[in-house]
Amino acid sequence: MKFRYAKESINLACKWGYKGVEAGETLSDDYFESRMPIVMKRIAQGGVRLSMILNRVFGGSNTMEDDALVAT
Q1: Count H helices, E strands: the chain?
Q2: Rounded CA gap, 53 and 61, in Å?
């Protein structure tokens, strides 16, 4: 569980972030715009996951099962 989110990010980076990119290549605006939906989803997921941790620490949700439903 500890590294699940990191592994998830690495897999997405390999699948989408670096797809079609050559080493040393200057990335275009099209590149950035095409990846923006994925970036926005990852930011939203991070916010939800952070809120779950803060809720657990400060007295909100007490179960991992409740958190798992929201985090995906």
Answers
A1: 3, 0
A2: 9
